Amino acid sequence: MRQLITPNQTSVLSRLLVYVRQSGLLGKINLFWTTTLILILSGCQHTPAATLDLPEAQSLWKSDKSSQPNLSSQAETLASARGIWFSQENGWIIEIQEQAILRYQITPEVCYLSPNTGPTFMSSLEYRYVRVLSDDRIKLEYLPGDGQAYFERLAALPERCLHRVDRSSHGVWKAFASFFEHHYAFFKERGVDWQDLRDSLTKELESTRGESLNEKDAAEFDAVFDSMKKVIAQLNDSHTKLFATIEGKTEKVQYGQGDTLSMIRSRLGEAQWLGGLIEQTLNETLQSGAKHLGQQRIIYGKVNLEHLLGEKSNESIGYIQIFTMGGFTDTAEPGSESWAKAEVDYLNITLQKAIASFKDASAVIIDLSNNRGGYDVIARQIAAHFTDSEFAAYRVAYRSPSRIERVYRVEPFKDEKNTQHRFTGPLYLLTSDVTVSGGELATLTLKNLPQVTHFGSTTRGSFSTPLAKPLPNDWYLELSNELFLSMNSELFEGRGIPADVPFEVFNAEDPILSHRLAIQKIVQWHRAKTHSSDER
Question: Locate the Tail specific protease domain: which residues (predicted)?
Answer without folding.
Answer: 294-504
